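WARN no homologs supplied; continuing
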Amino acid sequence: MGVTRRVSAALAVCLGLLLVAGSALPGAATAPLSVLRVGADPDYRPTSWTEKSGKMVGSDVDFATSLASHLGVPLHYEGVAWDGIIPALLAHKIDAITAMVITDKRKEVVAFSRPYAFQTITTVVRANSPATFNPGRADLAKLKVGVMVSTAAAQAVAAMPGVRPVSYNTVADEYNDLILGRLDVVAIESVNAGYTTKTVFPGKLRVTNQDLTGQPSYTAVALRKDDAPLREAINAAIGAMMKDGSLERINRKWYGNVKMIPAQ
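OK structure emitted
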């Protein structure tokens, strides 16, 4: 065999090995597994839900897909009933829950990656409002405020002195009254605000990104406590996603201009 042919054969073998092994995107650690198995709520729009075709879609599907790419492994993404999702993780039926809010109670049984998203209680105004109209906590007592019943936003506003909000049973109703001028502002969770204003009321409503409580909740990847190497690799992959803009692109696709990425 000639030198050129031997070199070509060697390159072909190397390329084949790379394709089989997968190739992590720059900046991420190699995952200590051959496939990333992720479990998610199958009916929690816009994070994850199942279409009629059976395909799961949502912001978490996009996040998990990008995460697996940065780890250099294939993704297996499946719906798991939310009340059984942590038991499924602990039983090794899945490797990760890629969209879980960090709480002290959950930290007793699972380990979390570095946070990659946060949510606040914020305000929404009409898109044609002056650019300087960004009502925060100190402004609400002077305004007509709408909230949806039984939400974190409703609880937060109820605790604010001098604020007498109008309660609604649905987000659509409070947003419609805001558009019609019956309200000055809607107080709502920022993730819901971003998704709903972008997909249902484009060009009509604007999220201010004001933080009404100063107590954001953080989302991270939940893992088994004994999976330290995987946690390290996922932390590196999340860092790479923040640096290369892929995380920001996913957020903008689903939530518009809502601020969601924690400081690095």
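Residues 1-22 have pLDDT under 50 and may be disordered.
OK
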